[in-house]
Specification:
This protein is α/β, with parallel strands linked by helices and 183 residues long. It is built from five helices and eleven strands; from the N terminus they run ββααββαββαβββββα.
């Protein structure tokens, strides 16, 4: 893979924080900033490689605790959902059954993510859709981020771009992963 690197002749946008990934983790991160550090939230940009509403290949399972988090953030999402109580894992001739009231909530991820994004945008969130993270590097004590649309100077970079995070890959030394991407 060829990475686009920072070019000093191109225009550089300055933000205090960049959040990569506008799924529930990225939007929730911004909403928490807005609640607890509004001055920092106002200097934050969120980039998302897709456009909303977007479809996700992953299932629409959201932790049951998410309702408490959304309530704490004063977010009311009126979207259809179903709570799941029993979860069974099967492998070869073995199975494990876990029973717990409202273990998680099933939603249509496209609807859930879009509704959550709309809350953020209404509260002032800066969202760049169809902008893909490419790489990040420390240059002259400044964190430079290259995306498919340009270059940014940031003080903090949040990787909320999923289990195969491009941000994590760019910021950590290469190593053999022990991450289970599917459960």
């Amino acid at each position: 893979m060829v990475l686009q690197m920072y070019n000093t002749e191109e225009r550089v946008e300055d933000y205090d924080v960049m959040i990569v990934g506008a799924g529930p983790a990225g939007i929730s991160t911004w909403l928490h900033l807005k609640k607890y550090a509004p001055e920092l939230a106002d200097k934050t940009v969120l980039i998302e490689k897709a456009a909303f509403p977007r479809h996700k290949l992953c299932a629409g399972a959201v932790g049951a605790w998410s309702a408490d988090v959304l309530e704490h953030l004063e977010v009311d999402l009126s979207i259809p959902s179903l709570f799941v109580t029993d979860v069974e894992f099967r492998y070869q001739d073995k199975s494990w059954l876990y029973k717990s009231p409202n273990r998680f909530r099933m939603v249509q991820r496209a609807d859930f993510d879009f509704a959550l994004t709309q809350v953020g945008v209404k509260r002032g969130m800066v969202l760049h859709e169809k902008e893909r993270f490419i790489t990040a590097s420390l240059e002259r004590d400044v964190l430079m981020v290259s995306t498919s649309h340009g270059n940014y100077s940031v003080k903090a970079l949040v990787g909320a771009d999923g289990s195969l995070s491009m941000v994590r890959r760019a910021m950590m030394r290469p190593h053999k992963t022990c991450l289970a991407t599917t459960l």
